[in-house]
Amino acid sequence: MFFSPRVRLHLVLFALCSAFAFAVNSSAQSSSEKPKIGFLMDSLKVERWQTDFQSFQKRAQELGTDVMLEDAEGDDDLQFKQAKKLLETHVKVLVVVPHDAEKAVRIVELAKSQGVPVLSYERMIRNSDVDFFVGVDAVAIGGLQAGALTRLAPKGNYVLLEGSPTDPNSHLMMQGQKKVLQPLMDRGDVKIIAEVWCPNWDPTEAYTRVGEVLAKNPGQVSAIVASNDGTAGGAIQALEENKLDGKVAVSGQDADLAAVIRILKGTQSMTVYKPIGSIAAQAADAAVALAKGQKPVSSGTVSNGKRDVPAFLGPIIPVNKDNVSQTVIKDGFQNLSTIKNSLPPEQWPK
């Protein structure tokens, strides 16, 4: 078909204008899309992790980002596959609660190879080039746990009920616990008769292993330094079956509803409360900053064995029967009505 020079010029100009309009429209659509954050969770079976994610997601959405969650259910290989899946969707940052802090190095390496920063949340990914860490001082938590129990049981046989051996926080808490207990052990006032590890922080494992310790040492256990509320619950179930509940001092961590109720009943001595809502929100702030190529606000650094990682460490608060109302209830972390419905009036928090 023949077109005159004037017509051909109009056609060329029309094509150029159409291409320009398409490019502008595509750019506008791209810029209007919310940046995506990938969140790799070890497992949502534990109550506190559900709270963590909900708080993180709420804050991230307030900051104009979308969060894509993957739950590995305690499976390292699945968590790695989920990391690949999220990276294929072009997330701008990965937030990781690793199941195994050593094996999760490959997640960091994969993300970094694609130019995606990684934030390690609550559990530090060891010996890696992780960009940022948000969590708490696990050594200090262990110290609070052991310190609270030594005031209740300054002498006697102690059981150290640790968490998952693949979680670096378990080892750090044990350091804090032993640091407090060592002077009492040197004086001969305290003796550690068992150190028990609970893979995946499994309460059933805690119940079984504590039951074994009690069978070997009937009536001879003064305190159980349980590293979280789930394992504390398993230990207390074993104590109940041996009619020792309320007679043995037991620590915990996370301020779970069941633990708060046990504290008010007198079967658990204390827990360590971490304002998870604010800590998770801080993690969201840091993740969004990383997604935008910015530097998150840090309170210091934490070594992961390879480098000093910029970090934000949240507060930790010991909770016992006397300050439940002033801590977890006042903050809205646990609901007073729910607690009252679970207890007789004489055991309600003051």
Low-confidence stretches: 9-32
Overall 3D form: globular
Query: Structural class, from secondary structure content?
Result: alpha/beta
Separation of termini?
92 Å
Oligomer: single chain
Biggest sheet, in brief?
A: 7 strands, mixed
CATH hierarchy, class of the largest domain? Alpha Beta
Any idea of the CATH topology of the largest domain? Rossmann fold
Strand/helix succession: HEHEHEHEEHEHEHEHEHEHEEEHH
Range of helix content: 40-55%
Count of discrete structural domains: 2
Going by CATH, the architecture of the largest domain would be: 3-Layer(aba) Sandwich
β-strand number:
13
The CATH superfamily of the largest domain is Response regulator
Structure description:
- By secondary structure, this protein is an alpha/beta fold.
- It has 2 domains: 34-136 and 276-313, Rossmann fold (3-Layer(aba) Sandwich); 138-273 and 320-347, Rossmann fold (3-Layer(aba) Sandwich).
- The chain is 47% helix and 17% strand.
- It is built from 12 helices and 13 strands.
- It has helices at residues 5-32, 47-62, 76-88, 105-113, 138-152, 168-187, 203-216, 229-241, 257-265, 276-291, 325-329, 336-341, and strands at residues 36-41, 66-71, 93-96, 118-121, 132-135, 156-162, 190-197, 223-226, 249-250, 271-273, 300-303, 308-313, 317-319.
- A 7-stranded mixed β-sheet has the order 2-1-3-4-5-12-11, sandwiched between helices. It has a 4-stranded parallel β-sheet with strand order 7-6-8-9, sandwiched between helices. A two-stranded antiparallel ribbon has the order 10-13.
- Strand 1, helix 2 (47-62) and strand 2 form a beta-alpha-beta unit.
- Helix 7 (203-216) crosses helix 8.
- The radius of gyration is 26 Å and the shape is globular.
- Mean pLDDT is 91; it is low at 9-32.
